[in-house]
Amino acid sequence: xxIKTEAIVLHAFKYGETRLIADLFxxxxxxxxxxxxxxxxxxxxxxxxxxxxxxxxxxxxxxRPRVQLQKMRDARLLTAYASIPFSPEKLALSLFTxxxxxxxxxxxxxxxxxxxxxxxxxxxxxxAEGGYANFHLTFLMHLSSFLGFYPNLEATDSRPEAGNGxxxxxxxxxxxxxxxxxxxxxxxxxxxxxxxxxLIRVLMxxxxxxxxxxxxxxxDRNRIVEVLLHYYRLHIPQFxxxxxxxxxxxLWQ
Length: 253
Fold this sequence. Notes:
Layout: E1 2-15, E2 19-26, E3 30-37, E4 56-62, E5 70-79, H1 88-104, H2 112-127, H3 135-147, E6 173-175, E7 180-182, E8 191-192, H4 194-205, H5 218-235, H6 245-248
Parallel strand pairs: 3-5
Antiparallel strand pairs: 1-2, 1-4, 2-3, 4-5, 6-7, 6-8
């Protein structure tokens, strides 16, 4: 079936002299893998630079069920980033996001709300002039709602804490396996003590426009990333260690 759809590039690698294998998350068909033949001249429709991680495209492709590698007929930039390629911090966040989504959306079907969330998040990052140091924390926390394991507040007192994370602990723990707050330690080791469980509530209150109001040290951010990645590994089978995390650890001293 021939379709035209918006798409986000997750990963691409060279395959032979003139071809790429590219993984895209598309608005209309979900996660798809493509074999892309690059033209030998600059006049061709498919350009190598279109397949950098997190590039937003509009593609025309022939989608066939049970075919592992789809064929791409045409592609054009949906939106060209104005700042991400030229900012080391934004580029590091973008590469981390791409690597994360490559594994998190491994078998994701059509999900227009999820596609819109990712697309809007990247455009927000590109336009942000500052205050984006918590982008990856906010992105990962709210992405879990689209994948089915956003923290459940129904089992405990869901009243939000005041402040930006400096409030006193509520005494609740957070069960990472069940994705809920609890008063007693579960019968396993995958839970957060009250001091770190409190940070989950803080993350749930953050969004892109207001996240600059929440102050974290570099050590705080690194620990939160570690916790969030562990949370995802508990809910997504075979979720690996990410190579790009090392770069994030060095940002924003």
